[in-house]
Amino acid sequence: MTGLLPARVIGQPLERADGMAKVTGTATYAAEHPVPGLTHLHPVQATIARGRVSAVDTAQAEALDGVIAVLTPANAPRLASTEDPELAVLQSDEVAFRGQVIGAVVATTPEIARHAAGLVQVSYVEQPHDVALRPDRADLYAPDKVNPAFPTDTEQGDVPSALADAAVRLDQTYTTAWYHNNPMEPHATIASWDGGDLTLHDSTQGVTAVRDTVAPVLGVAPERVRVICPHVGGGFGSKGQPHVHLVLAALAAKAVGRPVRLVVTRQQMFALVGYRTPTIQRIRMGADRTGRLTAISVDVVEQTSRIKEFAEQTAVPARMMYAAPHRRTTHRLAALDVPVPSWMRAPGECPGMFGLETAVDEMAAACGLDPIEFRVRNEPERDPETGRPFSSRNLVACLREGARRFGWAHRDPTPRARREAGWLVGTGVAASTYPAGRIAGSSVTIRFGPDRRYQVETAAADLGTGTWTALRQIAADALGVDYAEVDLRIGDTALPPASVAGGSTGIASWGSAVLDAAEAFRDKFGANPSEGDEASGGMPDNPHTERYAMHAFGAQFAEVRVREDTGEIRVSRLLGVFAAGRIVNPRTARSQFIGGMTMGLSMALHEQSVLDQRFGHIVNHDLAEYHIAANADVAELEAHWIDEHDPYVNPLGTKGIGEIGIVGTAAAISNAAHHATGVRVRDLPITLDKFLS
Amino acid sequence: MDFLSPTSLAEALAAKARQPEAVPIAGGTDVMVELNFDQRRPSALLDLNRVAELSEWTVAGEHIRLGATVSYTRIIDELGTRLPGLAMAARTVGSPQIRNRGSVGGNLGAASPAGDTHPVLLATDAVVEAVSVRGTRMIPASEFYLGVKRNALAADELIAAVHLPITSAPQQFAKVGTRNAMVIAVCSVALALHPEQGRVGAALGSAAPTPRRALAAEAFLSAELGDTGQWSAPRPLPGSVVTRFGELVAQAAEPIDDVRGSAAYRRHALAVLARRTLDWAWQDYLRAGHGGE
Ligand SMILES: Cc1cc2nc3c(=O)[nH]c(=O)nc-3n(C[C@H](O)[C@H](O)[C@H](O)COP(=O)(O)OP(=O)(O)OC[C@H]3O[C@@H](n4cnc5c(N)ncnc54)[C@H](O)[C@@H]3O)c2cc1C
């Protein structure tokens, strides 16, 4: 690949192709597909955090009019594979966390199912549970790798001596809270069997991945499973992999011989569909007198569930952000009697960059340097971990452009120096980063239709991110035709397979395959195809992957107001500048950036899943108590990007923008809060009482 | 579950007498949450939305008689100048949707320690009109709140209205929340000046098992203002008085640590809110030139 695909339709701020259907309510979401003979499932969840189900009395539930079946570990059909303990539902009587599914009621209406689920009487043999994450636990262990396949620990040089010799030193611990993905659309599945064929209407970030994961669990050949999902009401990673409800719906549909619908309730989501682990990050840094880092050390402690390991790669961004000859990172896990953690927008980078970017702010101050200048001084020439050059690295450009737009030049660095009518006002900055990767496995078919339009097909997903529009724009340029001449079909395993919409890899992966298919099509049929002409393509290997470090970067600026006498904190301004390769659709891209930043604001100030250690459950398991930033919490919010030409990442030059917006936001806000008040809050969320103690 | 939908107050009271366990539903912004979360499974719901008498407000002499189901939105739009403290509290409730549905009758029925109207009702000497087939009881707000989510209503009683004095004297309400809207108060304070009685009303919310008056703070400030002739010839208040008032309001609280804030934080913030509301109210009083009265 030499040059990038020339952009003609790419780069236009087109409206969402699916926008009208969504706002008029005609877009069908998973639970809305009309399926004749539908029945409804409500799970029964464990009310203990560890132990065994000793008896289940289903008599009262079964006696209820409208109840079709009550499933328990005793009578549920066996699964073909129980290798994944998260998905091995109703296969044993063990309880590994509070809220785990231990039964299910299928009934003629959702109301009856729910009522009956409450009538199921469960007895337990309870064992003492352990849900406390502490950095001093004796049983912390090093996982074999961290998500998805990074080394657990890294070490270069001699960190202890470098720290001992450093002119300026930092040794602080930063913590992030337990967070739950809360997309607007709760997880939902309709499962219907037709003989040995299974159709799943599921709300998912990847129909192909769902099929390939679930088929062996159910003991069905993948080609006999069809997964359909044209629209997703958000996922943020929690719909990236199938969770227990999907298997449960399929199992129950098999058991009752009728289609089953399962809509996970908001409260059930807090136990069943993944979450972000809390993290404890001890960060040590050393610098010389000129503000050049000599050592960076990040030791992370976080949790996983006893039954299934998920290791958030929290320290990974510290491996590539700044230059320093001596560096180390470690991850240690506590396996607890808690629900299974999973992906949540920017796993690793999001919590990791809170610690790192707050620490950098502290170091800059300790060195007497402006935090932007400090970052510029510590720019690495090559990826510090691999020694490879960056395919493009425009962090400094983002910092400078952000500073210009934000008005950083006039900032007085003294903390607690600006007061406006009882409010302390401060500004802060932090860097963002996210890897620019691709996932293999997508194919695309292009067919010339009877209406002389090009039908482009792949099982990709649009979880609100804009795939319906952006991929069609790419197809138009790849074929050299107008946007209106392209029809796109996605979200169905009846189409050619596609990789999961995760890791901000969607457009880069599917788009590469679209390009490959378009080239194949033109090679075969030229510029004047006939009806029915068809060609396919996949994602070609990228020889540059082994030669370059590929990452997107950004800089986020925050203005924060803290009421001097009560500590109430408000973010009056957020501004982000990103360098994320080529932007396919500025309108939907902007929405990704400001959505990510808003979620970062939410993480900084509001979000926190509160664990009741006595019972092992999340107390604030609904949107009334699990606060997510709402319109009134977001004042001025701007996202910009710089033109970035990266010929190495992929033939489109895109880097992925779904996650970077949440990375660094919380640090920018905590740094601004420190500038406003002189109080350094190292534990999220930043709540009002932390400014007064 | 029975759904009773009376169309007059008499019918509603008869139904409540027959089925005292029936749960009244006005705006439903508390009741529906409880039903959805299965915190409550009443055998009957008593819908008050068709009872016209409950959704009106009238002027009765020196008072406004505010029907139990008048929405927050209407209080803000229609009574903002006559019931300034209540309107201020109403503006901070939930979101536009919640303010369109929610009512003071419902806030009283729920009797949450965090309900936003309670401190205002206490500070302004509001009286709850409780009715049943047995007759009418006038219950001062200060005797209405009995415990966490417990109030003084008998099983067969409904709240018909709340009586609040019409005033041109300054009233204030202030609340600390962890975000800008849709937020349960971390703590709140209401203050009402009663120049005609030479008295100050002050109350706090979300910082004790019930909303409650800050009696010592009221007494201190009332005495201070009276002794120094401030009601007829108001002058700027000495800082020491404002500070002491804040301390006394904070002392009236019995806060707990919870997700929204620590007990220590609440005490601190109550003192701030008390000082703030007093400063604002007194500035209003000075500005209105009450000295000449
Ligand atoms: C999203 C959301 C945000 C909220 N934000 C706030 C807030 O910021 N501040 C706040 O104070 N509250 C808030 N609330 C709670 C609620 O809106 C208020 O308490 C409101 O005043 C309830 O009024 P309602 O008419 O909806 O009451 P309902 O829900 O109809 O009733 C509440 C209780 O009062 C009883 N009741 C109702 N009317 C009568 C009557 N006439 N006689 C006897 N009993 C009666 C009911 O039986 C029930 O127990 C919020 C609620 C939600 C869902």
TrEMBL record, chain A:
Residues 24-128 form the Aldehyde oxidase/xanthine dehydrogenase a/b hammerhead domain. The keyword Oxidoreductase applies. Residues 525-544 are annotated as: Disordered. InterPro entries: Ald_Oxase/Xan_DH_a/b (IPR000674), Ald_Oxase/Xan_DH_a/b_sf (IPR036856), Ald_Oxase/xanthine_DH-like (IPR016208), AldOxase/xan_DH_MoCoBD1 (IPR008274), AldOxase/xan_DH_MoCoBD2 (IPR046867), AldOxase/xan_DH_Mopterin-bd_sf (IPR037165). Gene3D superfamilies: Aldehyde oxidase/xanthine dehydrogenase, a/b hammerhead, Aldehyde oxidase/xanthine dehydrogenase, molybdopterin binding domain. One of its GO terms (molecular function) is oxidoreductase activity. Keywords: Molybdenum, Oxidoreductase. It comes from the Bacteria. Pfam families: Ald_Xan_dh_C (PF01315), MoCoBD_1 (PF02738), MoCoBD_2 (PF20256). SUPFAM superfamilies: CO dehydrogenase molybdoprotein N-domain-like (SSF54665), Molybdenum cofactor-binding domain (SSF56003). PANTHER family: ALDEHYDE OXIDASE 1-RELATED, XANTHINE DEHYDROGENASE. This is Xanthine dehydrogenase, molybdenum binding subunit apoprotein.
From TrEMBL, chain B:
It comes from the Bacteria. Gene3D superfamilies: 3.30.465.10, CO dehydrogenase flavoprotein, C-terminal domain, Uridine Diphospho-n-acetylenolpyruvylglucosamine Reductase, domain 2. SUPFAM superfamilies: CO dehydrogenase flavoprotein C-terminal domain-like, FAD-binding/transporter-associated domain-like. This is CO or xanthine dehydrogenase, FAD-binding subunit. The keyword Plastid does not apply. GO terms for molecular function: FAD binding; oxidoreductase activity. Keywords: FAD, Flavoprotein, Oxidoreductase. Residues 1-169 form the FAD-binding PCMH-type domain.
